[in-house]
Amino acid sequence: MFEGFFGLSENPFNLTPDPKFLYMSDVHKEALSHLQYGIEQRKGFVLITGEVGTGKTTICRSLLSMLSKKTRTALVLNPSLSDVELLQTINQDFGIDSSSGSKKILLDKLYNFLIDVFVRGENAALIIDECQNLTPEVLEQIRLLSNLETEKEKLLQIIMIGQPELARMLQAPGLRQINDRIVLRYHIWPLSLSDTKKYLQHRMEVAGAYRTDVFTPMAVREIYRYSGGLPRKMNALAERGLLMAYLRGKRRVTMSIVAAAIRELKGNYGENKKRHRLLIPVFAGIFAACVIAAAFCWPDAFSKISEYAATPVVAKDKEIPRNENTQQAPVPVSRVDYVIPQYEEALEILSLVPEGLVGPDILNLHPKPSILKLLGRPAIASVDKGYVILLYATDDFVRVVGRDKAVVEIPMKEFIPLYRWNVMIACTRDQENPVYTMGDSGPEVERIQSTLAQAGYQAERSGFYDDATASAIERMQEDFGLKRDGVAGEETLVVFDMVEKGMQ
Prior knowledge:
alpha/beta, Rossmann fold, Helicase, Ruva Protein, domain 3, eight-stranded antiparallel beta sheet, five-stranded parallel beta sheet, 18 helices
């Protein structure tokens, strides 16, 4: 539907594992290298793990296209089989007789086939996907397959691919024999923010897009937050974003479009508009009656309600999120729901947020509202009449945790008047940390320069601490309310670590 609108020859975000669309991040390159090495060097067992949607199956299919013609392969995508059914599937995929129901006959035929392959100077590889679904009996059968060998060489290279729980399964005492035979292991991590941008651009380019920057920077960041760097979730959200942009006649996918797409994916389509319009007069009458009654009966309470109601915001879920990726459908709330009067109470709530308390010390910062988005860690921010638990910020809004553990999204233009220019970050400060200053050089200086560049303070990454680096540090120190001395000392390095995390 939207393909022609964006100049696409096909949908770039189909959920099917098409190797043509594989984005080769450093992680995926290393995973493929492990697989190729394990097969070519006849290592026997190779284990690849990764979360759902990290691209494991796509890597499998890419591997098949990269192997030489001298490598015979069998691919098992449905491991929910008995031990006999597994052998039948393997033999069938190798193109040998699989009609027997006897394990011995099936194994004999497989062994003869592997010997023949070896004599011809070829190799044989068995790739099993979704191995976390295998029963102990089938795993034992796979172990026995590894016994098919000559005096010097493994006849069958076995690639086991599965979710992280597979690695934990193999730690069980009963599976120690197969776990000990795994010589190569690799875990596929989710993509970083920078890789998310490249991933979206890559798939758009492969699909023939007029332009590869269809997704705005803030849209990319929101896609990353929602997906957690998992390609499958990215695909679902990006496809929905393209469709909604097309329906709105927009050539670019913006953050607001992505937010709307997230609500749809979560099944929050809103109430029937017609019904909603019919109910407005009814609720308006009830509200007016309540307001009049409150004004006469409780004048003090009425004044407080008026004060808090002056700044509407939108709330999210009623639980503290695991991380900043949490997205929920908005509902109206008042300021009283997210301002925490007591610091001790704010500190207690912060302790419930993952990564909310890191270390025994509290570092007081005074960041400008415009750079709150650089905070890479939950923090306590001082506001009018109390505190808020700040999860993260963008140019348009800040996301905080309220008193009832609700996640609240406050428009930035409404947050700024409340903000008291003080943010408290829990951290660990080591007095033995080195101090970097003019004339220093090396990898750590280059890392500091890289962080400065990502945050928009410096462009060059020479690895040498020069005047430009010191000036960039001074600007960053000023923005965060630190002592402006151009030296990367203890507190400045804490901020660097925090910003570096926020940039990932």
